[in-house]
Amino acid sequence: MVRKLAGLVATLLATSFVIFAASYAAPGDPVTFLAGGKENLTPEYLAAIRAQYHLDDPFLVQYGRWLGDAVTGDLGRSTQYHDQVSDLMAARLPSTLALVAYASVLFVVFGIALGVLAAVRGGRTDSAVVAGTTFATSVPAFVTATVLISLFGVQLGWFPVMGGGSLWHLTLPAVTLALGALAIISRVTRQSMIEQRELDHVSVARAGGLSERLIVVRHVFRGALGPIVTMCGLVTAGMLAGTVTVETAFGLNGIGSLLVNAINTHDFPVTQAVLLLMVAAYIAVTTAVELLHPLIDPRVRSRA
Amino acid sequence: MLLSVEGLTIEAGGRRPILREVSLSVGRGEIVGLVGESGSGKSTIARSVLRLLPAGARVSGRVAVEGEDVLTMGQGALRDLRASKVSMVYQDPRSSLNPVRRIGDFLTERMVRTLGRPKAEARTRALELLDAVGMRDPGARLRQYPHELSGGMLQRVVIAAALAADPALLLADEATSALDVTTQAETLALLRRVQAERELGMLFITHDLHLAAAFCDRVHVLYAGTVVESRPAKELFADPRHPYTAGLLACTPELGDPRPIRPIPGRPPSLDDAFTGCPFAPRCPEATAACEEEPPRPVAVSGGTAACRLVEA
């Protein structure tokens, strides 16, 4: 447990370094953006700004200062909005989290259902599910978004096309996001179930007179759960960092659009903080999945 | 007759049928051995008693348990047969149990889910059964997972589960082959005890002719999907009539026996080897040209039958 925690901290530390180094190495001098308008570009003023933001310090010193502040919860101020970065993120985070949660529920429920259907029915149902989900996943998110907006938002008028704030608003974005994950989850479910179905203990259960439905529920699906849960966790974690397109397409004020905006305006404190948050969220989700595994498979429990 | 198999032929795509015209019977309280090399079709016979047939198999003949034809009965009757009349014990106990479910689950599943008995009653029954198969502290066992028990213990659990619904017929498919020698002996003793106590009919499948001869009342020797010899165990052991049976007995070493070990030359036929004559002819030390011409018919010998032209002569 201690080793696991130390590992998590080390991962976060390493990624924080990479993130900081990347924004340090990014083209463009932040001073020119910090200075504001062209009329401010006097050498004296630039020097003052450099001193204010400690931009002349060696790289490692800058990193150390940023890290020290970040650990105490001070992520700095946005160079664009001049707000505390943590306040900015707190304002944007709920809508992104709601969006990802909504999408996760959708792809978990439908992905697993389709995968089970394909594995149990086989034949044409199987081919139809594989073809359908592959198609749904291979369409880029911005195309799906456009199609959904024009169909359900504009022509049918069932859903609002812009903005957030309610489940109603989040439905189309969540569907767009979930469609991309459908193929992976249904494919993993299907494959895992087919592997489990071939195991001896399943035919032992069948030889004991258990009905096919109970065999699927109690033995095949139960055994297939491990890889399915892992995949659902990884996809959800990936989504936390991949909401940019969908947020932009549907005009949602989330973390994704905050990040893109921050990168475009060379707002380093915000960029760094958002990236760090995404990494932390990814680590949190994968750790949660890892902690879930002993509950699914008792063999893991006794090994630990 | 408890189990009677008549003229069972199963074809599943190979160049020869998996089983050809197999007939055998098991009475109440009787242990019948089924001996053969791997691929001879012994497991297929056991599985066909539960109608667990290979995918796309063409089946002819009759498999009847207590007079009812297993191959043609409806789904409901089939589930009932699997749940309460015929039980099977498998070679590898470790793969027979779902690794993520508790021992208690495995034992009560059939009683609760298929036969619809109340959970508490099934649990009491499970405890009795574990006690009956000689497991200490049955209450704790119910809460354990398969990986926490040894192979021998698991086989006891599998046997206990097989007895759960008071079956009349037990199919033991290489039930002791994967176990240690000492565990093997314990498991054999256990099988023998429960069989005698409950007057079960048992189909005992093994590749070990010596074991079968010692354990069973009657033995059928199987080769390439056909029964080549079926005799009472003692007679078969003392005086094998089919050259294959004799060969099987000769290729196991025995203490104090000065004769050299003589393995049967060649290899067991696969499903892609088709035969016009006797399937054993290519490996038979006594085969003549006539053996290759037409399949031998079983002829009566002392106590049973042997399918060999040379016995006829």
Low-confidence stretches of chain B: none
Element string of chain B (H = helix, E = strand)? EEEHEEHEHHHHHEHEHEEHHEEH
Overall geometry of chain B: globular
Extract low-pLDDT stretches of chain A.
Answer: none
Count of discrete domains of chain A: 2
**Computed Rg of chain B:** 20 Å
Write the H/E string of chain A, N to C: HHHHHHHHHHHHHH
Helix tally of chain B? Answer: 12
* Helicity range of chain B: 25-40%
User: Whole-number average pLDDT of chain A?
Assistant: 84
Radius of gyration of chain A: 24 Å
Order the strands across the largest sheet of chain B as they lie in space.
6-7-8-3-9-10-12-11
Strand-residue proportion of chain A: under 5%
The major pleated sheet of chain B works out as:
8 strands, mixed
Strand share of the residues of chain B?
A: 15-25%
Helix content of chain A: over 70%
User: Within the CATH hierarchy, at the fold level, what is the topology of chain B?
Assistant: Rossmann fold
Subcellular location (chain A): Cell membrane
Organism (chain A): Nonomuraea fuscirosea
GO molecular function, one term (chain A): dipeptide transmembrane transporter activity
InterPro entries (chain A): BPD_transp_1_N, MetI-like, MetI-like_sf
